[in-house]
Amino acid sequence: MAAEELRRHNLSAVLERLHLLGPRSRSELTAVTGLNRSTIADLIGELTDLGLVDERPGTTSAGPGRPSLVVRARPTGAIALAIEIAVDSIAVAAVGLGGHVFGQQRMARSRARTGPGDTTSDLVPLMHRLLGSLPPDHRIAGVGVSVAGITRRDDGVVRLGPNLGWSEVPLGSLLVDALGIDTPVLIANEADLGALGEYRRGLHPGVRNLVYVQGEVGIGVGIIADGRPLVGTAGYAGEAGHMKVNPNGRICRCGGLGCWETEAGEAALLRLMDTPSDTGLAAVESIESRASTGDPVVLDAMAGIGRWLGLGIGNLINIFNPEIVVLGGVYHRLFPFIETTMTQAVSRSALRAATDLVSIVPSGLGVDAALVGAGEAALSRVIANPAGQRTAAVDAPLA
Ligand SMILES: [Zn+2]
Question: How far is the CA of 252 from the centre of ligand 1 (A)?
Fold first, then answer.
């Protein structure tokens, strides 16, 4: 490895540890990175000069009169603006290094306002309020955008967002124009970012193989394989909502027949409850409260959804051999009511060897998983190349 590349790698390794693990003493950093003390001192010096870390007295004392110092990622040194464009809501957040959330806001919206123009119009005031609330000495590192659709990473075009009614929408350039920003904008699929959020900020330390299954109107899947997001050639991997599970099923919004989301998605749940015209957050809240009171119609509908959900999850377990499957979105909210039939269906469809190793759990980040992932994705650029502002740009992986 060339000296310059080695240095970038080491700067990145130290900053990433501080970002994910929180403040650490120099000797702890030496232990977790395997680098020697003088190298760590040198790297901390450069990261301090870059404004990305600082060193301050910790909460524990090293001995009488000698407060121990800890190194901390400076939240204002690099702030990501995170945006989530879901079907039933939009959200913005400002997240600094170390995961410090400076501000966050979510706005419910009607399905009559999901078009690209209405979406950007609704985002502008939310973002301006957020930017106005930031401390004066901050630096914006980039913008990460989660969208309920199939997105092309290279140019930020949403190829297809069937549940938003979008096709070939140049979201990246629309947002740059609408928000008047000149920092990098990364657009990615909501489930891919939900998986990244769960992997980096969820309740699963040490897990390197994770499948995230999100239900909103459709079903999205994000995969972390051996610690790396699996995104495919153009960023379209994980469209498991359109995995064909029922040859006798229905026509999906994508045009296919018998897709997983037509059997286990929100529309299927409402159809099973005989309330197919209800939609959105209010419908899900109503279902949740009826289930809590033991309404047999709702519980039967949930059992049906659990069976189809488990069939698909079993297939994903066979393919990816994850350690953990995280259920997000509507499945996170409805988890207690679908868990039994889902688990039984997983046992029927997945190989015993793989199911013995896997846990299926509700998301610890809840509705914010994709928003958290969008912030992490935007910060990943500066973490991958902390000195990037004064050296040649390096294309950072989304991790
Ligand atoms: Zn489909």
Answer: 5
